[in-house]
Amino acid sequence: MKHLLAITIGPVQGFISAARRTRDLWAGSLVLSEISKAVARGIWERDSGALIFPSPAAPAQDLERNSAYSVANVILAEVEGSEVAAHVERARSAAESVWRTIADDAFEAVSSAVHTERFHEQLGGVIEFTWASTPVVTGGSYKAARREVMRALAARKACRDFEPWKGYAKVPKSSLDGLRESIWLEERLDHLAGWKKAQLRLNDGEQLDAVGLAKRLGMGARQFPSVARIAAEPWIDVLEKRGLLPRLVEACEPLRGDLVSYSSGRFSQFRRFPFDGTAVYESRLHEIEPASADSEHKKDVLESNVAALRQTLRELTRACGAPSPYLAVLAADGDRMGEKISALESAEEHRRFSRALAGFAAQAERVVREHGGALVFAGGDDVLAFVPAHRAIECAAALRSAFLHALREFPGPTLSVGVAYGHFLEDLEDLVKRAKDAEHEAKQPNRNGLAVRYSPRNQEGRQFRCEWSSKPEELLARMIGWHRQSLIPDQAAYQLTGLARHYSKWEKDAPVAAAMQADAQRLLSRKARKTAPAVLDELRDVVKRHVTEPADLQRLADQLVITRKLAPIGVSR
User: Fold this and answer.
1) How far separated are the first and last CA of the chain, in Å rounded?
2) CA neighbours within 13 Å on the CB side: how many for 448?
3) Residue 478 to residue 304: CA distance in whole angstroms
4) Rounded distance, CA 198 to CA 67, Å?
5) pLDDT band at 13 (very low <50, low <70, confident <90, very high)
6) DSSP assignment string, 89-101
7) In what helix (H) or strand (E) does residue 556 lie, and over which residues does it extend?
8) Alpha-carbon span 405 to 356, nearest angstrom
């Protein structure tokens, strides 16, 4: 008799979110994907027709380690009942083997500076492997069997084992999440080779545990762009449009060995300026350190090259304005996916659905790259990415279109997207959390939404939520254009906020809509410039069609404020 076997790999959020650098975040998701991929490959090698989710078109290549194919942390397969135990054991062994290999690779690179016993002790119990199975009754419903196995899996995860942890006195905790003790032998860190230090990207006093070390070194020398590099992209656009980008590239070339640079093969979006964002912000130039400091002459040369770059930045800033330090973090998630999966009638239909999701994940990487961003992960319908501020809304709309196209044979699911704007010097965990919170807001109250948060440092933030059916990306683009042409007075948005607060105090059964629309249109007529009648007419139309309660008016005010903040980004003076 056939059985449905469901396996989950974890912990997901805890493993990924423990990060101080973008590469930590990316590497955490990649490690989990590689472990899940190994589990799926183990099942496929024992029974080539068993996999349901994932269901790769070319499993021999797609499930190979380090392939571009991404695997989510849930694996579903249909296997013979007598083979369940063997499949579980093989899958568990594959998961542990890949994790140990990744961690050991990191250890070998810096073993002289690592407390060996503590490192190996921490490797055990990191990966949570949970499974459940249920028989598929002959002539029975696949839907019922899948529902039962997922219910059993959820119950097993809820009562998972919690093993006691042995701590160490007077040993600092990991700087990433504070859960495990540091594995560094502090007195030996200074003896590491220069390239090893550069790859580790350690801050002064930064502590790493075994998991943190695996994130920094376990995936090899593969790079991931910094938040500063993503934030710099709008300014680089400006320089290119003004014909000034070659001057910046020329000033950075002498520092190529000391600056982080990105491969044009893997990061084609950075081909025109392959250097890290450190080179764009004058206040960060002190972070440039010599790749090799074995002579005073090299230090002197470095200081001279940095001074020349600083002078170039000042000249370019006078010509084009200063680069904005803001970027966008984008989080997207499919809506009603559980309902759609629960409605699938057979394992074969589920396999087709799995391939459609895999197609979207592949398209998500392309979409983010085409908008100048960097994809952290795309696991089925779940996406996290860093995107330049001036292209984030456009990227969100393109991802939604790609999602709907990929699932065109399975109508119903939609994509909700959260976009959070923040300063690149903010805590990375906070930036990602705001994007996740925005994604959650995008799903309220009826999903299929876009939620935007703008959080300036040390100031009150703004946020709004719209449904995709209202085409918010088009309205927001027009608003940004109006602000760039100074067609909307700044005070209009703030006075609309005051108006929204005033009407929010009215009784619920009072005729709010008509009075509020009339006041809002009168305010806009008084504040709008006479040179922009078309803009005034469109704003009046927006009020008439979309403003029926104070929350709608507040959303319009927030849209105007946020687009005003975004308007100067990527625009030369």
Assistant:
1) 71
2) 12
3) 45
4) 26
5) low
6) HHHHHHHHHHHHH
7) helix 550-566
8) 9
Query: Are the C-beta atoms of 475 and 570 separated by less than 8 Å?
Result: no
Find the angle CA(486)-CA(514)-CA(524) to the nearest 5 degrees.
Answer: 15
Helix (H) or strand (E) holding 302: helix 296-320
Please tell me the distance from the alpha carbon of residue 553 to that of residue 542, in angstroms, as a whole number.
Answer: 10
Give the torsion through C-alpha atoms of 143, 146, 152, 158, to 10 deg: -100
Under a CB-based contact definition with an 8 Å cutoff, are residues 181 and 118 in contact?
A: yes
**Distance between CA 282 and CA 323 in Å, rounded?**
10
Tell me how far apart the alpha carbons of residues 280 and 302 are, in angstroms, rounded to a whole number: 17
What residue ranges in 38-127 does DSSP mark as E strands? Answer: 51-53, 74-80
- Dump pLDDT digits (tens) for 275-306: 999 999 999 999 887 765 567 888 889 999 99
Phi, psi of 96 (to 5 degrees): -65, -40
Neighbours of 504 (CB within 10 A): 14
Tell the residue number behind the tokens 């903010």, with chain if given.
Answer: 426
Q: For residue 436, which of 517, 333, 355 has the smallest C-alpha distance? A: 333
Tokens read off for 482: 């109006």
The pLDDT-based confidence of 573 (bands split at 50, 70, 90) is low
Residue that has been written with the tokens 């790493």 in this structure: 208
193 φ, ψ to 5°?
-65, 155
ω before 445 within 30° of 0 (cis)? Answer: yes
Let me know: does 137 contact 145? Beta carbons within 8 Å.
yes
Q: Which ranges of 288-383 would DSSP assign to H, the alpha helix?
A: 296-320, 337-343, 347-370
CA distance 290 to 458: 34
What does the alpha-carbon distance between residue 133 and residue 5 come to, in Å, rounded to a whole number? 4
The answer to whether residues 2 and 16 touch, using CB atoms and an 8 Å cutoff, is: no
Average pLDDT value for residue range 421-442: 95
Give strand pairing partners of 331: 384, 418
pLDDT the model gives residue 530: 55
| The listed CATH number (2.60.40.1470, 3.30.70.270, 3.60.15.10, 3.30.470.20) that belongs to domain 325-470 | 3.30.70.270
DSSP structure string for 199-210: HHTPPTT----H
Alpha carbons 322 and 570: distance in angstroms, whole number:
10
Among all chains, which residue has been given the structure tokens 């991929």?
Answer: 37
- Distance between CA 168 and CA 180 in Å, rounded? 9
How many Å apart are CA 230 and CA 277, to the nearest integer?
Answer: 7
For residue 464, give Cα distances in angstroms to 331, 412, 506, 563. Answer: 15, 25, 22, 11
Query: What are the DSSP E strand ranges found in 15-161?
Result: 51-53, 74-80, 128-135
State how far the Cα of 154 lies from the Cα of 147, in Å rounded to an integer.
Answer: 11
Strand order in the sheet with 449-454: 374-379, 382-388, 326-335, 414-423, 449-454, 462-467
Higher model confidence: residue 552 or residue 293? 552
Q: What is the homologous superfamily of the domain 2-217 according to CATH? A: CRISPR-Cas system, Cmr2 subunit, D1 domain, cysteine cluster (3.30.70.2220)
- Whether 119 has a pLDDT exceeding 80, the answer reads yes
| Total residue count of the chain as it appears in this document | 573
Torsion of CA 237, 232, 323, 22, to 10 degrees: 160
pTM of the full structure: 0.93
